[in-house]
Model the fold of this input.
Amino acid sequence: MGRWGSALAHCILEIVTDGLDGRMGLPDGSGLGALPIGESLDAEDWAEKEFNGAPLGVLGRNQTGAESRGLHLHSTLVVTTEGLPLGLLKGQLWAPRPKKASRRSPNIPIEEQETFCWMEGLGDCVDLAHQMLHTRQVCVMDRGADIFELFHEQRENPCVDVLVRANYNRCTTEDVKLFDAVRKTKAKGVLGVDVHRQSARPKRSKKRAKPKRAARSMGNG
Done:
């Protein structure tokens, strides 16, 4: 990442941890074992922080084709089932690697792949479960965690349950694939989310289309 990226990463993580752990009085997740919590959700998520003009890796390209540069951020936030934040368990920042080196391949050890951050997050949740012996830990992860190695790791450490957003239509114990099995399952409930307008300015009404111009005829002569 280099000196510039390392210094920036340190500043960002310091701001994040001060905003969460410092406010809750739970630095680095310590002291959670004393809390009378029956169940907690350990939410892992992945984000990208753009710092265009900085000497960092390429995140992608925008609509104009220009490269956007920045850092990857992977964090784990511990909350109760009522939504009360308990603290930031861990946060990682790193510069993107070239795409050829970041693609999943059987020839690249899982520890050297970018998806390994999800397994590291699960390991942190397992360590936390040893402190919170009377609390059920549920690690909630996005589709990037839908990898075989993570499910195998969870079987080796069943003290933490996992809820992963499916990315692959995997086989099940029955003669039906995962997505088809979900479609056949009766819905347990419906949740509505109100999405407010992003802009406070009223949208201008679209102008009426101009009437179609009459076709021209070319005369002889």
